[in-house]
Amino acid sequence: MGERVRVCQLEELPSGEARRFVVGGRPVAVVRIDDEVYAIEDTCSHEETSLAEGEVWVEERELECPKHGSTFDLRTGEPRTLPATEPVAVFPVSVVEGAVELELP
Known about the structure:
By secondary structure, this protein is an all-beta fold. The protein has a single domain, classed as Rieske [2Fe-2S] iron-sulphur domain (Rieske Iron-sulfur Protein, 3-layer Sandwich), CATH 2.102.10. 0% of the residues lie in helices and 46% in strands. A four-stranded antiparallel beta sheet has the order 2-3-4-8, with no helix packed on it. A three-stranded antiparallel beta sheet has the order 1-10-9, with no helix packed on it. Strands 5-6-7 form a three-stranded antiparallel beta sheet, with no helix packed on it. The N and C termini lie close together (7 Å).
């Protein structure tokens, strides 16, 4: 089990948007969709671009890279569209007493 890190309050995350945090020296995009929260590595595997600056595809549970349009599954980190072919890391997330906590390896 990794280190648990509190990043923000749930109420600070608007549904359908991504926010960038640096956690343990690592950039992480945190996305809230209704009552679910996801955490994904905030660097596109195709080209080093912040995914948190991209569009959240709510129904698909994907985050789009703003540079070339690749989308990444928020649950698995797998790319869903080209040009990205390599996955990005995902991190376990929990909400504890209204605070969003990530588990880092």
